[in-house]
Amino acid sequence: MLFTSFALLTLLPAVFGQSWQQYLNGLVQGLNTDGLTTLASASAALNSSSDGQQIAQSLSTGNWTLFAPNNQAFSSAPINLTDPTSVRNLLSYHVVHGNFTDQTSSYPNITLGRTLLNDSSLVWLEGNESQVLAWSNGSNGIFVLNNGTTVPVVNKTVYQNLQVLVIDSVLKIPQNLSNTLANSTYDVTSVGGALSSFNAPTNNSITLLNVLNNASGITLFAPNDTAIATASCIGGLLPNTTALIALFGNHIINGTTVYSPSFTNKNTYTSASGEPFSFKTNSSGVYVSSAGSNWAKIMRSDVLTSNGVVHVIDSVLLDKKVNVSAAISAYQSATSVAATMSIETGPVGVAPTTSSQ
């Protein structure tokens, strides 16, 4: 059992009679004792910068879950542990608000938690929200979904208020939308090419993909490569950029990052072209439709990007209609909601417990 030398400490609240420095020192000692020496060194380095100290202060109160890379993980993906910013971002993305591993959904359902990573050079979510982490529960236990791979939890324990889940890989921070669509693992390279093939209606010098790259809070239902190849409607619309933009706009939610747990909680969403999305679930999976068009099956959900999320679908949504006023109203509403968002302290999209920022 990890942290056996500190068993008694698990009985004490982190806020009882100790400073965040004492908390951090105890955590570092526990990590070292149990062979997670590289992570211990990274954790100790938090004390070398004000941003790092803020992370330590946050961890010392409340409930948290740490996805803790083991030494082998660090040897396979060397990290510059001498750079305070790299250390801060590394640890920030491996820590999520809340202690809710018992609430982890079984695959294919996915659980998401809000991390501490909010470096504005890496995260551009609406409302300046921190990045999320996605994981699920399979026959062999919990695993993280990261950059198109699954990262298993190989051990777990508790340090005071911190659930420690040991993993055998260092997690990669989500990339921008262009790089994510270019990742062949997701089978959506064609939609990336399509979005790069025509310019935005408001700026003829920038492609629609670049517009999406620079947006804050984007949800994209991305047809997979087979769907794009077999969609005769796209070829027929090629001379008509306006119609193409309308079609692809009905695959996008602008200003709101919608993760898969929100598909089934009766929320309503409007596309960037102003059309309403519908969702349904049956024994074969989860499906999405735009304004009552064809139903597309969601083949892979919660592909995280720096500014939102991609859900891979098996067909193009055949909706070319536009409702400009509805699109503007939905975006304004999303912006208003983002300005008053709270920090989730449990699974994103389903947790009733929040605290004000």
Account of the protein in words:
There is one protein chain. By secondary structure, this protein is α+β, with helices and mostly antiparallel strands. The chain is 29% helix and 25% strand. The protein has 12 helices and 17 strands. The strands form 4 sheets. It has a 7-stranded mixed beta sheet. Strands 11-10-15-14-13-12 form a 6-stranded mixed beta sheet. A hairpin with a 2-residue loop joins strand 8 and strand 9. Helix 1 (20-33) packs antiparallel against helix 2 and helix 1 crosses helix 3 (50-59). The longest helix has 15 residues, at 324-338. The model is unreliable at 1-17 and 353-357 (pLDDT under 50).
Mean pLDDT: 89
Q: Please identify the structural class as seen in this structure.
A: alpha+beta
- Radius of gyration equals 21 Å
Q: How many E strands?
A: 17
> What oligomeric state is this?
single chain
